[in-house]
Amino acid sequence: MVTKNIASDQKVKAMSLVEVRTFIEHLAKENPDAKSELNYTSPYTLLVAVVLSAQATDASVNKATEKLFKVASTPSEIVALGEEGVAQYINSIGLWRAKSRNVVALSTQLLEQHDGNVPGERQALEALPGVGRKTANVVLNIAFNQSTMAVDTHIFRLGNRTGLALGKDVLAVEKALVRRIPKDLLRDSHHWLILHGRYICKARKPECWRCPATIVCHYPNKNLG
Ligand code: SF4
């Protein structure tokens, strides 16, 4: 069903740059203090939370990390806890075995190569076990104030459905968004778009009747209730 929607969405005409600005400004006005729904207290706990959030809801990750971070919230504490120890706290989340392994391995690498600190460069982040481009983009955006765009399933759908940024894969949509969104709005757009896709512009039935950006959206099958 999602594939069908995206395929048809790709026929949507791209928004003009003026429309892109208007679209983002409407989302911003509706939700000026948008931020990540993952709980974290440092760049390191943010990194771990984002790694754990792959194919899992933020709520399920927060439930697990609430207990985990009380016991271990630094690379050395996670390494001391070990894979089995980490697994005890995160085994309610999908892919928990691989994630336990990656969290311990990336913590070891941070200690060995970065003095236990999270690096603020894409290349170094993506060299960490379990960290791909999307995770690096989230960490660079939130912890290092960089204007990156992490394209998840919601943003990929939203870009193609609305005409905001068309692309056949997540990298194409990411590049189009970075190119098209005005620089002064780019950093926070990551949050505005994720939350909009998660709660309003939903996969099966977008809730267009309560969307603040209907006027500039190019989606031809708006669900106006
Ligand atoms: S009008 Fe509908 S399809 Fe367009 S952005 Fe809003 S919720 Fe999504």
UniProtKB/TrEMBL annotation:
Residues 52-199 form the HhH-GPD domain. InterPro entries: DNA_glycosylase (IPR011257), Endonuclease-III-like_CS2 (IPR004036), HhH-GPD_domain (IPR003265), HhH_base_excis_C (IPR023170), Nth (IPR005759). DNA repair enzyme that has both DNA N-glycosylase activity and AP-lyase activity. The DNA N-glycosylase activity releases various damaged pyrimidines from DNA by cleaving the N-glycosidic bond, leaving an AP (apurinic/apyrimidinic) site. The AP-lyase activity cleaves the phosphodiester bond 3' to the AP site by a beta-elimination, leaving a 3'-terminal unsaturated sugar and a product with a terminal 5'-phosphate. Gene3D superfamilies: Helix-hairpin-Helix base-excision DNA repair enzymes (C-terminal), Hypothetical protein, domain 2. Its EC number is 4.2.99.18. Belongs to the Nth/MutY family. The keyword Iron-sulfur applies. It catalyses: 2'-deoxyribonucleotide-(2'-deoxyribose 5'-phosphate)-2'-deoxyribonucleotide-DNA = a 3'-end 2'-deoxyribonucleotide-(2,3-dehydro-2,3-deoxyribose 5'-phosphate)-DNA + a 5'-end 5'-phospho-2'-deoxyribonucleoside-DNA + H(+). This is Endonuclease III. GO terms for molecular function: endonuclease activity. Its cofactor is [4Fe-4S] cluster. Keywords: 4Fe-4S, DNA damage, DNA repair, DNA-binding, Endonuclease, Glycosidase, Hydrolase, Iron, Iron-sulfur, Lyase, Metal-binding, Nuclease. It comes from Commensalibacter nepenthis. CDD domains: ENDO3c.
